[in-house]
Amino acid sequence: MGIQLTAIHWVYLVFIVFILALLIRRRDTTMICVTGILALGLLATATLSGSVSGIFNSFVYATKELLGTIMIISIIVAMSRILIITGINETMVSPLTRFLRTPAMAYWGIGLIMMVTSFFFWPSPAVALVGAVLLPVAVRVGLPALGAAMAMNLFGHGIALSGDYIIQGAPKLTADAAGLPVSSVMQASIPLVIVMGVVTTVTAFWMMRRDQKNGTWRDGLVTAQGTAGPLSAAGTGDDGQVHMSAGLRKALAIAIPLLFLLDVIAMFMLHLQGGDATALVGGTAVLILIVITLLAHRGQGQGLEKITAYLIEGFIFGFKVFGPVIPIAAFFYLGDSAFTELFGQVLPDGSHGIVNDLGVALADHVPLNGAVGAVTLTVIGAITGLDGSGFSGISLAGSIAGLFAAAIHSGAATLTALGQVAAIWVGGGTLIPWALIPAAAICGVSPFELARRNLKPVLLGLAAMTLTAMLLV
Known about the structure:
By secondary structure, the protein is mainly α. It has one domain (7-472). It is 75% helix and 0% strand. The protein has helices spanning 7-24, 30-45, 48-86, 88-93, 103-121, 123-140, 145-163, 169-178, 182-214, 246-270, 274-296, 303-322, 325-333, 338-343, 354-365, 370-384, 394-408, 412-430, 437-443, 447-472. The chain starts with 6 loop residues before the first helix and ends with a helix.
């Protein structure tokens, strides 16, 4: 016999519907999430003070759960800043420019370099690391600036960010919401990310070459410069290059990739995943930041102060990105073990959390199968990405994947990964214009034209990925 659903279960379900409705209308969901937490707290504690306190406590809970992810992103951005102003990033990437001799080589070369860089640095700082160096080379060999922006977008904000196999921020969010190990979600996402990535990038390239031959290509240029990265406008007020000898810069440009390569080797050798792998990358980035900052500012005697300044800049970026995520995550964490931890044992005996209970009830009343679950998760992931964050809704995707998997008794990891990949491809920076600004800005093209160019390839990729998930569930 299934778990008896209570008012708490129904209220939680109603608020999920409200949140989806707001996302479809591209409205902010923070207020509705806070209202949902308040309503659930009122039902659980039957006191106004307990429900109001529950809002703050749920925010603290969500922040604790997300803190590792926020920290690694902040540290990577801080390190990227010093690499940019010392010119080390240019030295790191410049040897690769000799391989970009044709438009096709430039498209695939920029894309693959952006993907690899984004795995370690995340796409936003990677745009600054890669774009400023490779864009002039690509344009010189005949690749349009918009084509370069598409490549950076699809490979960085699409393939690399949706899988997120090194930093592991995205799979941790979805795995936690679905109650699964991070490793299982990452493993399940590999075929989905491959199918999505191949279909999308090949389609985008084919459409670009077709339109160029037909004379219907529009580059959507909005500025002539296209060399100012998104990180150059904010931060320490030290926007100029910091002088560093060519020999030292070259030595550091070799040492930094080697250090991260050693991290990857250590992950495989020591079986480090999830938080342990993130900690290794984060600690390495902090040490790189400290050493390079001390070397770069040693002549001015400001090295110690600059370390703090770069870290502050990184933390500002990190909390700006995750500010909208925390209230949403706070609500969706209540669907699992967080509810009992914050409000006590008020769910029925035998309950395994609100979401799991709803899944069991759904299995008793609604005929679900893998195909229906796959299509639904893709649609939900895409809808949650409409806010242009990519990350704010993947907790919802994880929760619903857990619900569906409980109903059909299989495919939990695949459905969770499917929702994650769909949400990040749509909202992480390939379709929503305001999320495309970093790549569009560095290439000097219109974010709206870039979104229009990405639309058909991404939709085809989502369809192909959904079909693949149906076979795997």
